[in-house]
Amino acid sequence: MKKGIYLKETGVILSTLPYGDSGSIVKVFTAESGLMSYFAKNGPSAKGKLSPFEPFTLGEISYEEGNGSLALLREFKVSNYHLPIRESLERIEAAALMADALDKTQGPGLEAPDLFTLFCLYLKWLPQAKNPFTLAASFYLKTMKHEGVLHITPDCTGCGNPLGECLLCEGTALCTDCALEGTALEPEETQLVLLLTLAREFKDIKQEEISPRLLQALRLFFENTTQ
Ligand SMILES: [Zn+2]
């Protein structure tokens, strides 16, 4: 490649780790190339100043192929710091859960433009949600759906009867007669899981609350199903 001509990608920073004396490894979920890691010569900027490499920052990366496996990040043009997310610890935690879902399922060169669009949308919605963790839970479910490992419908996957109480196991929800094992959900929890899986618009889930218990159950469900 000619010197000075850089490749470009749009992406959201997921994490930045110090590397060497002043460099860093920047993990970015990109629109075109999936989850990528870049080496940046300059680490996070001076104290008190918001670094462009802060997690959840959206922007345009200019990079060139490195000699090793890591591409060299030359420039990062910030288009959105998502500042409202940084105003609350709960929002930051919820956004970190979404980043974690991507980290566990996505990889370099695995393009996932639909998931990228969804991630950007959820980051935008996060500050307006009554409970940011509801969005994080929805993102877990939609990521599983995107990966083709979630098969939840309003009816039991086993017998076809409408789901009330149910058990979550290996990407599916079964009624208490069909399931042998799994995480048990109350009827209202089942309804919320269905809503968070199938919701198409923000207004459908904006006011929903999720209990810490259900959030934890869905995180486990995600981990067991995607590992
Ligand atoms: Zn059944």
Please give a structural write-up.
- The mean pLDDT is 92.
- The chain is built from six helices and eight strands, in the order βββββαααβββααα.
- The longest helix has 17 residues.
- The chain has a five-stranded mixed beta barrel. A three-stranded antiparallel β-sheet has the order 7-6-8.
- The protein folds into two domains: 77 residues, Beta Barrel (OB fold (Dihydrolipoamide Acetyltransferase, E2P)), CATH 2.40.50; 143 residues, Recombination protein O, C-terminal domain (de novo design (two linked rop proteins), Up-down Bundle), CATH 1.20.1440.120.
- 33% of the residues lie in helices and 25% in strands.
- Helix 1 runs parallel beside helix 3 and helix 3 runs parallel beside helix 6.
- It is α+β, with helices and mostly antiparallel strands.
- The chain binds zinc ion.
- The site of zinc ion has 8 residues, from strand 7.
- Zinc ion (ZN) binds next to strand 7.
